[in-house]
Amino acid sequence: MTKQPENIHSATDPQKCREIARKYRWKLKAIRPTGDPILNIDCVFEGQQISDAVGKVRLGFKPQANSESPLKWT
């Protein structure tokens, strides 16, 4: 059986997952804890990942503001 692609976005509470699902008409598959004190849950939706921010955070990259860009991944 092939694993289905997942589109994962972090949020502050489960209600935000439901709001995202409703706004973008995505099917919410699961809500998982992240261990992060602020974005403490992952909203898991059906389909391909649409951004790479989740992967960068999980690999230890952190967003940094600097003079070149308001937000840069370092």
Number of helices: 2
Distance between the termini: 37 Å
Largest sheet: 3 strands, antiparallel
Query: What is the H/E order?
Result: EHEEHEE
Write out the strand line-up for the largest beta sheet, numbering strands in chain order.
1-3-2
Overall 3D geometry?
A: globular
- Radius of gyration, whole Å: 14 Å
Estimate the strand proportion.
Answer: 25-35%
By helix and strand content, what is the structural category?
alpha+beta
Question: What level of helicity do the residues show?
Answer: 10-25%
Q: Would you report the number of β strands? A: 5
| Mean pLDDT over the residues | 77
Structure overview:
By secondary structure, this protein is of the alpha+beta class. The chain has two helices and five strands. The strands form two sheets. Strands 1-3-2 form a three-stranded antiparallel sheet, covered by helices on one side. The protein has a two-stranded antiparallel sheet with strand order 4-5. The longest helix is centred in the N-terminal third of the chain and has 11 residues. About 8% of the residues have low confidence.
